[in-house]
Each structure stands twice: as C-alpha cells, then as structure tokens.
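Task card 7
Instruction: Convert sequence to structure tokens.
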Amino acid sequence: MDAQYDPRVASLKVSEEVRSEVDGTVHARRKHAGIAVAGDTWGLALSGGGIRSATFCLGLVRGLAKNGLLKRFDYLSTVSGGGYLGSSLGRLYCEKTTAAEVEAGVARDDSMWLWWLRNNGRYLTPAGAKDLGYATASILRGIVSTHLEIAVLILAAALLVLLPHVLVALFPPLRDDTWWNYDLVSVMPSVWGWLLVLPVWGCVHQVCAYWYTRDDPSRTSTALITLAAVIGSSLFWVALQTARQASGANMALYGILAILATGPVTAWFSSVAQRIKGRSAGAQRLMRTKRLSYCLWAIAIGIGLLLLDWCTWQLTRLYWGDDLTGLQYKISATVLILVAAARVLVPELQRWMATTKGRSLNLEKLLNVVGIALSVLLAVVWTTVLNAVLFPATERETYWQLTWSGLVAIWPVTTFTVVLVACAVYLVTTRRSFDLLNLASLHNFYRARIERAYVSSGNSGAEGSRFPASALGAVDPAWTSRVAPLTEAIAGDDVDLAAYRPHDHGGPIHLINCCINQSVDDRTGLYNADRKGVALAVSGLGVEIGTRLPEEAAIGPTGTVSQWVAISGAAASTGMGSRTSPGLAALLFMSGVRLGYWTPALDTGQRGSDVGEKKEASAPSRRPSRLLRWAPKPLAIVAESIARFPGLFSPVWYVSDGGHFDNTGIYALLKRRVRVIVAADCGADPNYLFGDLESLVRKAKIDYGATIEFVETGKVSLLGNLSDVVGTPETIGPEAGSRWLVIGRIAYADGTEGVLLVVKPRRLDKMPFDMVAYADRHPDYPQQTTGDQFFDEAQWESYHQLGLLMGERLTAHSIKRAAGISGAAAIGSSLQEAEKQAVRTENTVSRRERVGMTVRASVGAGLSLSVLVAAWQGIEQFRESRRADERRYEALTLELMQKVREQPIASLYKQQFEQFAKESDARGDDRFDALRDRLNARCEEATSAQDKQACLSLHRSLSADPVPPPPFYDYWFADKHARLIEARTATTVVAHPDSPPVPPPTFPLPWPPATNASTSGRIDHYSILASTSRNLLAVTEPAVAPVPIATAAPCAEKARVFIHVYDEESRTPATQLAMALQEAVGVSRTPIENVVTTAQRTGGRTPYVWSSPAIVTNTGTSDACIARARSAFAIEVRVQKIGYGVPDTIEIWIPPRTTEAIAVTKAP
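Output:
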C-alpha cells in the first residue's frame, strides 16, 4: 500500500481496483450462483434502524426472493438493524446449499427460518423478570467497573490539583515581611491563582512579540518597539519598588504588575533572536499565534483548576471542617434542598415537554449539558473526598518539623504518597487491558442477543447444532421441538468474520458498515467539527477504510460476525460520528449505557510505526501514538469521557454504528460504482425529511465526485408498473399515500451511470385489514422510534408485511426499466424542499399546532411571571427581615445603655453583655466599645466596696478568653501560625547585649522557677506594671509609681505586640499591661493568650516557662521600639533577641502568678 495515501480521498486507480474485484470475486460469485457472469453489478443496501429496519428488510428481501431477484445481487451492504437480517441471510449460504435453494427457502412462507425470526427476532431489549435480571446485572457490572476506572483517573488528577496545597500545608506562610507571608499570598483564593500569572505573562509576551514582528521594519516602527521595551522596563522598576514598600493586596497587585511588565522587554529580546536566526516574519507570526493559543489554553485550564481547588476546599470546610457530628444533618439538608428544587422544576419541565413538538426541544443538547454538569460534579466529589482525607480537622493546627526521618509521621505526606502509589500501580499494570473497557460496556450483552437471534440461522445440520435440519426447510412440528431455545448459547452459532464468505457459495458479498470515530483531525490536530468519523466496512474480503477498497496490506478482519454486526449497530456510544458531543459522551460513559468498541488499528500498512517514521506528513501523530502505545487504556477512558477520538493515525480505534457516518449503506456501494442499487431507507424519519439520503448525496459528491439526481413524478411513465409508486423526497410525506419509491440517477466520476431505487417505509393508502388496524392504533407507524427494540406480534407482522408488499412490486422487468432511464428530466434533492413539504403536510393538523403553540406560550409566560413574582417577594422579604433586625439591634442597644446608666452595678452580670459583644463585633461597629466606656465611667465613680467588687468581677468575666472558635479551615492554614511560633520560640535564643545570658530551655524544666514569690507562692504581678491612664474596668489594686515613657523615636507602623500568660489569674494585670503597652508602643490592640489553655486544647506541649517577665523579639526590631515596650514595666525586664521571626514583633512573656496553678506545664 502506498504510504502517502489518505483513505478519505478516492484513489486515482479506483477504476482498476473496481474492475479487478469484479473480474475476480464478483464473477466467481456469479458462477456459484448459476447466473450469467457478464452484466452490470447489482447491490442491495439495508439501512440502520434497529428491529424496525431488520423486520422491514426481512419482508423486502423475501419479496425480492419471490420475484427471483435475490441471487442477482452481487453485494449486500448493511448498517445496524439491516445487519441483523443481513448476517442471518448470509449464514444461510454454505457448501450444502445452492444459491437457488437459499432464494427459494427465503421466499417460502412456511420456512423454518421465517418461523425462527418471527418468534425470536422480535426483541433485543429485556423481556420478562429473568431476562430483566440478566440485563440489570450486566448494566450494574458495567457501571461499577466504569466508575472504578473513572475514580482512579480522577483521583490521579486530583493529586495534581492538590499538590500545591499540600506544599502550603508543609510550609505555611507567616505574618512577616518576606515574600512568603500570609497577608500577601492570601490575596488569592488558591495557589493556582498565583500560578495563573505565568500563562498571563506568556500572553503578554506573545502579543508584544507579534506586534514587534515586521516584514520590513522602518525606523519609526523600530523606535516604537524600542520605546515599548523601555516603558516596560520602567514600569517593572516602579512596580517592583512600590511592591517592596506595600503590604497585603497592594503588594500582590504591584508584584504581579512588575512581572507582567517584563513581557514587552523579553518579547523584544525574543524578536531580535528570531531575526538573527533568519526566520521570516510570516513564520514568526504563525509561531506567536500558536504559542498565544497555548497560553490561552493554559489560562483556561488554570482557571478550571483554581475553581476546582477552591470549590472542593469550601466543601471540605462545609462538611468536614467545622463539626463532624453535624455532617449527617448537612447532607440531609442538601438532599432535601435538591429534592425540593426537583419537585418544583420537574413538573414544569414535564408540562413544557408535553406541549412542545420534537423539533422544538433539542434533547441531544440538553443531554450534553447534563453530561457536562455530571462530569464536573463527579470531579468535585472525588476531589473533595481526597481533600478531606488529606487535611482532616484534627491536623488543622499541627505544624510539622520537616526531617527525612519524620516524613512518615506527617499525615498529608503519607496519605498523598499512598494514594499516588495505589493509582500509579493500578494504571501501569492495567494500561494495556482494553478488554476491561469493552467488557464494561453493553457490547457483549448486545452481541450475544444478535448472535443467538440472527447469526445462528446457519448453525444447522450437524450434531449439537441449534437447528437439527436446514433452516430453509418447511416448518415441521417434529423438528421445531428439537430446536435449541434462544436462551442457550450453542457452539457454531457464530463464526469468524474471516471465514464468513457467503459469496463463495453464490451469495452476495456482505459488507458490514461501521464508523471509525475521529473528533480530532489527524492532519492538523484541531477539532473536527463536521463528520467526526471515517467510514469502515469489513467483510470476508478484508477491511475497507474510507473511500478505499480492501487491499492485501491491510490486516484481515479479526473477531466474529456477531461482534461486527453488534459494532455496526452500536448506536448508543460515546462516539457517534457527526453527533458526537463531550457532555453526551460523558453521560453515556458514566451510565455504562454504551455499545461502542475499542479495537487495534486494522490497517498497519498505513498506520505502522515504520510509515510514521518515514513520512513527514504523519509527524504530528507520532507523539500521541507513542503515548497511546504505552498506555492505551487510560487515554482511551479520557477519550471516551471527553469525546476526543484521535482516529486514523492512532494505534487504537473506537468503532461504532455505521449510521454515525452513513446510515443508508449505499456509501460502500458507490465506491464500487455499482450499476443497480436497491436500498431500504429505514432510518427514523417521522417527518420524512430524508436526512440520511441527503447526507449520502452530499458525501457522494464530495468523496467520489458522483452526483445523484431524482426522477420527477411527472416523468415516470417510462417505468411501467412502478409509475404509481414512484415519488421524490419532496412528494413523499408522513400521511398515507401510494408513493414509496424514490428513483435516482447516479453519474459517476468516470462517466458511467447507475440507478438508485430507494424504498421508503410509508403507510400505504391500500393495505390489508390487520395492517390498517395497527396503523390506526399507532399513528407513528411505520416510523416508530428506534429506541423501541421490543416488538410484539402485531408490530412485527405489520413491518414485515409492509416490506413484503413493497418488495413484491420490484420485479426484474421494472428494475431493468428503471436502469434504462436516460431521457427523464431530473431534479436535485433538497432538504429545504423536504422541510417545505413537511410544513405543507402538517397544515392538516394546523389547529392542533396552534393549540400547542398557545399552550406553550401561556405556560412559558406564566412560568416567567411566577419566577419574577417569587423573586420580587423574596427580595422584599429579605429587606423586611433586615429592617426588623436593625430595629431589634437598636432596641437592644438602648436597653443595655439604660441598664448601665440606671441599674445598680451589683445587678449587672456577664450574660447581659456577652451576646451583644459578639453581635457588635460581627457587625464591625463600635457600639459595644461605647457601652464598655460607659461602664468604665461608672466603675471609676464607684465608692462602695460592693460596687468595686462587682466591677472587678465584671472585668474578669469580660476579659477572659472566649471559648476557642471552631476550626475555620483557612486555605492558607492560618491556624498553624500559633504552633509555628511556638516551635520557633522553643529553639535557641540569642541574648541582647544588655541582658545576662540565658541558656536555651531544656526539658524537663527546673521546677519551681526562680521567682520573687512570697512564702505563700504568690507572685505580685502588679509590682511589674507601670501606671496607665485608663483601665478596662476600674478595679481596686495596689497603686504603682508611674514610670515615664521613653522619648525615643516611635515604633514602625506595622509593629505588633503579643502577651503570653500561663494562668487566668495573670490575665487581669496582663490586660492593664496591654493598655500600657498600647500607649507606649503605639499599637491599636495587644492580644493576650493563655499558652497553657492553648496547649491543652490542641494536645501540644506547653512552651518554655519564664521565671521572670521577658521581652522576646527579632534582632531586626529597633532599640527605640524595645525601649518603649520596657517603659511600660515598673521593674527591669529581660530582653531576648532571636535571629528569626518577624521584625517589630514583640512577645511579652509573663511568668505564672501562682506556682500551684500551672502544674500542668511541667514536662513529663
């Protein structure tokens, strides 16, 4: 085979190839059939259409046999349902039976073959409880295995999505001035947000480089280009300097701007480099355009990963992060919401569908959207599960010291590694197991039924056969009881396709038509928006791809007859030719309802690796082919899930229903330039638009250069007895009539002509009583849906008899007259004319149409109005609830203000203010601060001991640490900050030159610590505090002589002060110290943390216990700031400077007030 050929383009040697096949195979077939060797070639095409087509074609074939025409056909081309009947007919030809005997047996009304098909060829879908059980088991088995494969691939992809987040968990950002600080990175909702900067920069670079490219650069353009590069450099420098001085969101904004500003500069260098290489301007622009498209794709993928990462983290917080005990309630609430929404929407959808004609509702597009939504939902669910496993609530605050020996103890690392290894092992060990994919589909279930119901007709005569005698004989009650039942699989029911050669015994050459799905153009790598498939025909002669005939270089057909007939009828597949869509493919793949089949490429003469290495044209396909050869199964799963099939130049093909390329079966006959073609057009066509025939006419003109024109109804007098049944695609409609035959004249590219007789199933105006009665009960007869694969007796007989009536009208004389037409005027087939005819036909039911349109308009307007009214009511209710809440809050504020102003201090208690404090904090107002100031004012005026004691009690209650909030599961792991600071504080401390050396803390610590405690063990904390100008609540405490605040320069604006205590008794003096520090250092707030309580809550170890007050700060903190902090103390405090941490962050450590209260801090 020529290594350079494209099978989608007709060969220049087609005439020689056709002549060779006719002179060899066709003439030999005619000798076996006992007919004249010379003469025109005849072909019979049986179209797709499931059981409907198989049953109608049975009648048509029997009618031709009754007229002695069956043995005249050289070719039998079948698709889908036509293949059921075709394979059953082909199996009847064997060495023991002549072609004449087969023709006579098929024509008989009492043959065993007809009896068998009448009883067992009526259904392919389950019937009965036992049969339904088998089908359910097959579907469930396929769904489970399919979702196992999907889960492994999604988990593998989810590992990639969550890998950056795992690294963040191991290296959480701190609140410092480095580039890896919390205020900066938390601007983005996900790590992928920062990674998006790279492809955005790539877009800027490629756009500028494209603009810089000139065919003949002038001085002006060169100056402008240089100016753009200079401006980019300046903008980079300004943005970088601004980013260094900014913080938080501003730092992120200017940092990103600085990165993007380098794009014009790097583009200038790249353009100069390309010009030096001598690459032309056109080649540069093409390169820039391609790379820009890659960057845009990277941005789209990055946004998808960002949304997936962010959404799954929010779901993790919702269901796992806050409260595990409430998980079941959350899931139940979600289910109830979905059920309620379905309860409202489904009836409206049903009502709309019931009042909408079929063409008004594009069901395929709807299913496509549903499939995409389910795919996204599945990815979100599995990624959320992995998120929850990697980051459980118990590890929220854990900070890990990274060492090689300690990696095993780090939960995210261990879990990530286990999942990664498990997925990798499964994918690698099963990467070539294509059988798993085919076994997970319904192919084998479908194939087994075709095998037993149709293909088994030739299994007769031998011991243990299904039929004890030839199926062509008369029905004998003595023999029928000995026929094996349909539910049993009998050896010999099926045969290898290579051994299936009915033409060797006088039968026709049976061409089984399939489709190679190809949604990606192998020549450009772009999306194939048109056919999305290539024709494939298999037979005893070999494999035919596209426009080519079988050749010796091609691999012989593997598999069995039933396997390829099942593939030819695989209508419900993830790949459906021109109707392929990603959402529908995903929906079918996830549901397990798919019939397509994966097979190795059947044409190594063209697709082999040697050819790929030799010719440059196939170079784009070598890279995916190598990957497919190494791991075909995972990539095949991805291809099915997103409907991206590589097609011809792939080492594996996804083949499906021949109707996905050509549903008529005529395409394979046109390539052979057959002189006489009789075709049954049984595709579902309730409006008689002749869509399959229209597609064939177009493909014939494009692929073969052949034109097909149809004879006008007014010019059929030359057709003799067919004159009253001949019509055109424009005149045959869904109403009852007498015209059902379309005759077309074929003009081949080599100047030869042929005739096409298309038999269209239609309700006739004259039919037997039983057929009329059935048609009256079923107005859609004979165009009932292909989804109906279970025919009852009346339905089966009605289709069979209709085909028989039409087949009997086709005689040798009438076909000869049709083939001899030369002077009849012809018209071109037009889908628009067919649609006009359909509209004219539907005028007979125009009133019903108008009623339907009125109902649809009313329902649509009513539904829209209901939605608007509901939305308006919801907004008004929300506004009213907000107003009511504001009124309640105002009343509560006034009530508490009045209590503080009028009621005795002793009658006030904590619970009156606690909820108000929380609500004020949530609203972000200062009403609680105003209330507290008023309470402080009253306490300062208190004179009685009872009021002073009440003030002290309120002060302690309102100043105590609140109950720690539940884990908020911050994406950037802010919960780990406290643990990270503790881990760093516990390391070596660098002493300040003014302070005595302090050894690093060791465990167990010396106990009790050296303190200035009295003999009772009590430490007088108030002796260490300087006086302050205000108190949170006035309390009676020992007065301390004031110490002047240092007059040094103020601290930096971003200075922070934290106070750490070991017991709650230390909190009151710590609060006063905090106010003093706020005045001295100039900070707005000074958090106080009980490190013992925190250690108990998190299960951690208590930090080092200081024996005297200490200031711990970074070496970068200014001495002036430290002096201001020391001025808040009434005593000399130790200052410890450490070589890490955040500059201008000061930690105040206050020793425990009583030694007995902190026994829990002792090291074990």
